[in-house]
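Entry type: protein chain
Record version: 2
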Amino acid sequence: MKNLRLIIALVAVGFAAASVVQAGEEKKESKPAGCCAKAEAKGEKCGHGCCVEAAKAGNNCEKCNGSGKVEKKEEAKQ
């Protein structure tokens, strides 16, 4: 009987942990790296090799503390 309770408790903990991990992965905020933000403010593109490779893949550079996908900017049409 004790073994059954232990198994049920472990299964419940496993489901809870899986739901927490899944919730964290669903909402990954897009945040550019600091070096990329500074370069963009100057009207340039970041020259770091790691940032260039990440941008080719459509991501922000995680090595430079960016996260998520690169957000496409909509240009104002006149």
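Comment: The mean pLDDT is 82.
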